[in-house]
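[audit] Reproducing an earlier prediction to check determinism. Same input, same settings, fresh worker. If the tokens differ from the archived copy the diff job will pick it up downstream; this log only records the rerun itself.
[audit] input (264 residues):
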Amino acid sequence: MAASSMYTGLSGLQAANTDLATTSHNIANAGTTGFKNGRTEFGDLVDSNAALGGGLGVKTQAVNQQFQQGGIMTTGNALDLAITGNGFFTVQDVGATDFNYTRSGSFHLDNQGFIVNNLGQQLIGATGAGIQLSGTGPWSNITVNTTTGVIEATDSTGATVQANDVLGLVDFNNVQGLKKISDTQWMETTASGPPTPGGAGAPTPGLPGTNGLGNLMSGALETSNVDLTEQLVNMILAQRNFQANSKTITVNNTLTETITQIIR
């Protein structure tokens, strides 16, 4: 019985440690553009012998992403894009076949006129290809029509040019099913379903504000949705849980020593 209680306390320590790690990660990314905070979900471990009526502790079931809207921060940079409502930007590494999805809309032009993020991934337009400005660089006076998705600029000759594709968004039937591959990027899975508009592995981003997709803001970024006050409270609770489970192990150790001495 004492050994069982010891393992129960140990499972509680492990769960509290996971909770602390998740909360610490949330706090560390409170200033990360497009970051979505995680929440640790737990479940009880039930003894296979139901007649005993006891449990065997707790287990971590998942760390779920919370996709609630973050705040909006204005920047004045036309290629900083914020989503208000549902949806994701589609980005892709040059030469890759897989697509990634993000709420982080910090974009700029590369030397070929492609719209890229800080990782060099291209922003994908409605036809499923990277969005590229026509004309010759450098480009200036960039504007983004957040309703039609049309991107215009002035090229080095002074001509007004358009991008080869329009900007759009995709969404998923089950965003919790997305596979997290970084703090601000996800990949589709069977659980998430394919991106819409589009299909499995073939997104065709739709116009903002249509078919349930959110709206776009140019010259702004979506900030992290981490509530620091809430996370600090969570950290205190996780610390208390850790201390309580440590006490459980200490008490069980004392009982075990007492029983051993009595037997002797």
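[audit] rerun output stored. Observation attached for the diff report: The chain has a mean pLDDT of 88.
[audit] end
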